[in-house]
Amino acid sequence: MAQIDLEQKILDKNDRLAQENHELLKEKQVYTVDLLASPGAGKTSVILATIHALGDRYKIAVIEGDIASDVDAVAIKEEGIPAVQINTGGACHLEADMVKRALDVLDLDEIDLIFIENVGNLICPTDFYLGEDKKIMILSVPEGDDKPLKYPGIFQVSQAIILNKTDTLPAFDFSTDAFTDSIKQLNPTAPYFPLSSTTGDGVDAWVEWLADQIEEAKAQ
Amino acid sequence: MAQIDLEQKILDKNDRLAQENHELLKEKQVYTVDLLASPGAGKTSVILATIHALGDRYKIAVIEGDIASDVDAVAIKEEGIPAVQINTGGACHLEADMVKRALDVLDLDEIDLIFIENVGNLICPTDFYLGEDKKIMILSVPEGDDKPLKYPGIFQVSQAIILNKTDTLPAFDFSTDAFTDSIKQLNPTAPYFPLSSTTGDGVDAWVEWLADQIEEAKAQ
Question: What's the complex ipTM?
Answer without folding.
Answer: 0.86
